[in-house]
Specification:
The chain has nine helices and no strands. By secondary structure, the chain is mainly α. The protein has a single domain, classed as DhaL domain (Serine Threonine Protein Phosphatase 5, Tetratricopeptide repeat, Alpha Horseshoe).
């Protein structure tokens, strides 16, 4: 079973930057409906900074790439997104340690650690209409895929599919955390922007892994 190395981790971050830039306005509009409207701009700023850091200090391991992303997001992204995503990447870095390549089990463990970091930092649970509603089904799907013997790219594909479904499932929910919680029933019918960006980023991880598995050039946006 081929593992995912540093090239994949860097390609994931670069793809994430591209997809966040592509969907920046959409994320702004989602956040404007139930938040303060800055999610897309903040995420784009953070990932643009990550690209600069990758060029300045190329990471030597997947864990180093995750830590670079964590530190950059925490320092460059305002609002809730910086601390939440930064904690997610930092916990993922800790989970994979110094491993040069990640097998399916480590991929699933990294996603679980990332989700647990988001939960610990944001104090949210499934059903609260937050990014946890994308991450938890992604973690569950990844764990099931890894347990079944799936390749790392398939583990990430299952996680991305589940995250996308989880983001859509926030539409009818009443928000119980964050600024959206002040809207009560008025938040119904609006997708949580953090769940939406989480789904985009997890799809970028899966696409980068698919390219790595097929031998396609890494780092380009689909």
């Amino acid at each position: 079973m081929a593992g995912l190395g540093t090239d994949w981790a860097v390609a994931w971050l670069r793809r994430s930057a591209a997809v966040v830039a592509e969907h920046r306005v959409e994320l702004i509009e989602l956040d404007r409906a139930i938040g303060d409207g800055d999610h897309g701009e903040n995420m784009d700023r953070g990932y643009t900074a990550i690209l600069a850091r990758l060029d300045e200090t190329p990471p030597a391991t997947p864990g180093a790439a995750f830590k670079l992303a964590a530190m950059t997001l925490m320092s460059k992204v305002g609002g809730a997104a910086g601390p939440l995503y930064g904690t997610a990447f930092l916990r993922a870095a800790t989970a994979v340690g110094e491993a040069g390549t990640l097998d399916s089990g480590l991929v699933a463990a990294a996603l679980a650690a990332a989700r647990d970091g988001v939960v610990a930092r944001g104090k949210a649970e499934s059903g609260d209409k937050t990014m946890v509603d994308a991450w938890t089904p992604a973690v569950d799907a990844a764990a099931a895929a890894a347990a079944s013997g799936a390749e790392p790219s398939a583990v990430l594909g299952a996680a991305a599919d589940a995250a996308e479904a989880g983001a859509v499932a926030t539409d009818p929910l009443i928000a119980r955390k964050g600024r959206a919680s002040y809207l009560a029933e008025r938040a119904i019918g609006h997708r949580d922007p953090g769940a939406a960006s989480s789904a985009l980023i997890l799809r970028a991880a899966a696409d980068a892994a698919s390219d790595a598995a097929s031998g396609a050039p890494s780092g380009a946006a689909a």
